[in-house]
Fold this protein.
Amino acid sequence: MSDQPSQTAIVTGAARGIGAAVAERLLADGMSVALLDNDAEALSVTAKRLSEHGHVHSAVTDVRDPESVDAAVASTREELGDPTVLVNDAGYIRDNLFHKMTLQDWDDVMNVHLRAAFITTHAVTPFMSEAGAGRIINISSIAALGNRGQANYSAAKAGIQGFTRTLAIELGRFGITANAIAPGFIDTDMTRATAARMRMDFDDLAKTASKQIPLGRIGRPDDIASVASFLAGPDSRYVTGQIIYVTGGPTV
């Protein structure tokens, strides 16, 4: 991919948190970036801010809907060019203990994580295949190893890992790499929502978590963005099918 004069990245869940941080980093790397999110107001604010750092296109998108995704990809191609990088970051939580979890809770989380990742990847890989190069970066989670109150989220994030490895096997012959990042405790709105579910003050939860992390602090969105930058760039051209845990310490 280093021989290509320009890169166009699509980042889902880009209105805030990890997605916004990844988009900002890829802009700093010289890429044009399409921001996809279903929150129109937050997306507008982020797009305005990031437009000061590079060429940005934003599209209000329901990543669970193929037509919505196809429209976003079409507008991205028109505004920025064919996508060469895809970052699947769109996320959603409906936490509860398993015996209290509803089928709707399960389906909603699976759809935003697994169904959406399939749809967006399916929409961009034809252009990557034609170009003979591409980067797919899926955001998993340490929760893939299991986490109390998150049977749906844990299963979805584990599914993302299997999806990623299979993409690497099948798409390698087209010059497309597929890798996943599995963040640990990161300071995001979603993590703060988890603290609220646990009826804990976020700062107290973060302090408790930090004591269990070898590096002694919780993560920041830019910690994940740095790894995404590597996976999207030329130095990772022989890295594919990998799950990189970004947790501040070893995983069990």
